[in-house]
Each structure stands twice: as C-alpha cells, then as structure tokens.
Amino acid sequence: MTDFTEIPVTDIRSNPFRLIGQEWMLITAGTLDAFNTMTASWGTVGHLWERDVAICYVRPQRHTYGFMERSGVYTLSFFDETWRSALEYCGSHSGRDVDKMAQTGLVPFATPGGAVGFRQARLILECRKVYAGDIAEAGFVERGVMEKVYPGRDFHRFYVGEITRALSR
Ligand SMILES: Cc1cc2nc3c(=O)[nH]c(=O)nc-3n(C[C@H](O)[C@H](O)[C@H](O)COP(=O)(O)O)c2cc1C
C-alpha cells in the first residue's frame, strides 16, 4: 500500500474511454488468501444513485464470476503499457488452470477495504458491490448486438460498484 496515495475520483486524469476500452483493466475479487483476477475491456464509470460508481461485466463461465458473486468488495486495476502482456495473459487463461500471479509476476496486496489490488498497478478503484444484474435478451433494442455478442446466450452479469477508494501510484 505504501506506494499508493488515495485520491478523490475527480482527480483521476485518465480518459475513461482510453483507460477501459484501450488500456484494459483487471477485475479482481476475493481476499488475499483466495482471489481471482481477469482482464476486462468493457466497463463504465460515472455517477449513479448519488454515488461515484464503476460498472463491470463478467460472463458466467469466468472463474472470476464465482469470486465476484461471493465478494462484497473488489477492485478494478489499471496498468502502464509495460504490463500489457500480463493483461493479455490474464485475459486468455483461466485461474482454474493456471497461477496467474506466478505467470505474470503481478504482486497482490490487500487494499484498506479488504479487497485485492496489485503493486504494479498505476490506478486501483476499490469498489463495494451495490447492484448485480444480468443482461437480458428482452432488453435489446438493437437485436444485432445481442446476436453478435451473445450467440451462446451467455449474458454478462454486471456489477455496479460504489468506488470506495481510488488509489494512485
Ligand atoms: C482485452 C480483453 C478484454 C476482456 N474483457 C472481458 C470482459 O469485459 N468481460 C468478460 O467476462 N471477459 C472479458 N475478457 C475475457 C476474460 O478475461 C477471460 O475469459 C479470462 O481468461 C477469464 O479468466 P478467469 O476464468 O480466470 O476468470 C476479456 C479478455 C481480453 C483479452
């Protein structure tokens, strides 16, 4: 934790479109004893229900899904370009089969709220789960999106998390 400073979310200077869609993030749920992490490039940040929130989207077949379901807190971690290959690895291998920490060199630590972040991250959003919901077929106005993204009907579950801390390094 020592390398990180807690900052107000309004001080985050990164462009959210670049941050999530292009640079990607790690969604990490569980505790230091037992956690899992996966890469994500779909996500949303903003203001909802009088809270600053981040929304992430996890398909049910991900190993991370079970950890997200069991966790009240979790993190979204963002990295410099030098960690791109680690994020590629965490986005193409499952924690069911491999030890992502051993393979990438990422070093986990417990955030003040009891979630898990990574020492090498440049920004960590610690989140408290406020709402979980499933994308539903009936909701698609643009049906083509549904057909393209969910041919197997494995709809993402989305988690609206109140950002409890933004940690910057
Ligand atoms: C760039 C990139 C973005 C991804 N974005 C998401 C996402 O937003 N939601 C999701 O469920 N999976 C996403 N994935 C796929 C998961 O990261 C991948 O299936 C991962 O291996 C799951 O790991 P796990 O089984 O240990 O949870 C993405 C993968 C990559 C490479």
Detailed description of the structure:
This protein has 169 residues and is an alpha+beta fold. It has one domain (5-168): Pnp Oxidase, Chain A (Roll). It is built from five helices and ten strands, in the order E-H-E-E-E-E-H-E-H-H-E-E-E-H-E. Strands 1, 2, 3, 4, 5, 6, 9 and 10 form an eight-stranded antiparallel beta sheet that branches. The radius of gyration is 15 Å and the shape is globular. The mean pLDDT is 97. Flavin mononucleotide binds next to strand 3, strand 5 and helix 2.
Helix content percent band: 10-25%
Gross morphology: globular
CATH classification class: Mainly Beta
Q: What structural category do the secondary elements indicate?
A: alpha+beta
- β-strand percent reads 35-45%
Oligomer: single chain
State the CATH architecture. Answer: Roll
> Under CATH, the topology is which?
Pnp Oxidase, Chain A
In short:
With 169 residues, the chain is an alpha+beta fold.
List the helices and strands and how they pair.
Elements: E1 5-7, H1 16-22, E2 25-31, E3 34-40, E4 43-48, E5 51-58, H2 63-70, E6 73-78, H3 84-90, H4 100-104, E7 108-110, E8 116-118, E9 123-134, H5 143-149, E10 157-168
Antiparallel strand pairs: 1-10, 2-3, 2-6, 4-5, 5-10, 6-9, 7-8, 9-10
What are the key terms here?
single chain, 169 residues, alpha+beta, Pnp Oxidase, Chain A, 40% strand, binds flavin mononucleotide
